Amino acid sequence: MPLKKRFAACAAAVAAVSVAFAASPARADAPAVDSDAPIVGQAQAAAGDGDVSAAYGLFWLYNKVRYKGAATTYNGDDADFTDNRWPGTTTSIDNGADSARNYGERDVFLFAKPGYAGAGLRFPPETGITDLADFPAFGRNNASSVWFE
Predict the structure, then answer these.
(1) Coil, strand or helix: which one is 75?
(2) Which residue, 87, 52, 85, 53, is CA-closest to 70?
(3) 114-123 pLDDT, tens digit each
(4) Bridge partner list, 44
(5) Which of 106, 111, 120, 124 has the most CB atoms around it within 10 Å of its CB?
(6) Are the C-beta atoms of residues 74 and 111 closer than 8 Å to each other?
């Protein structure tokens, strides 16, 4: 069953957070995603703080909770954050994010391990998570890859 349909079916039963196991992505050019990677949570509608242009990136990661601190953006898939740095620093983004936000119109999946593996969080369009620790199976400082559906 496609991932979107699986989450739609769960929505009626789960009010705040959908918990399911990820299926292989439906995109024709999809990267090899760990089909055993559990999707341990789903972002909720983010409180508005002004419009953010797509020119600055569609998916934002922050190194502090509540969308604070250093921030970096993604407009597409990245299988490994190891070589990515927080802007203006030498600090790796890998395992360094405390909050995340999707300003785009596509679902985005954030994974705890490189290669789209490990626990995952689903970010539907225009949603965010102010503290990744709210999802203990994922936790803070665990983000290592991002995939756009």
Answers:
(1) coil
(2) 87
(3) 999 999 999 9
(4) 128
(5) 120
(6) no
Query: And the tokens for 4?
Result: 């979107």
What are the distances in angstroms from CA 95 to CA 47, 91, 98, 119, 123?
25, 10, 9, 13, 18
HSE-CB of 56 using CA atoms within 13 angstroms: 11
Total-model pTM: 0.71
Count other Cβ atoms within 10 Å, centred on residue 75.
13
Query: If pLDDT is split at 50, 70 and 90, which confidence band does 90 have?
Result: very high
Q: What tokens appear for 99 in the block?
A: 């909050």
CB-count exposure of residue 6 (10 Å: 0-12, 13-18, 19+): middle
pLDDT at 83: 94
Q: If you ran DSSP here, which 8-state letter would residue 78 be given?
A: B
CA dist., res. 39 & res. 36, Å (int): 9
Q: What angle do CA 124, 26, 3 make, to 5 degrees?
A: 50
Smallest Cα–Cα separation from 42: which of 138, 144, 149, 117?
138
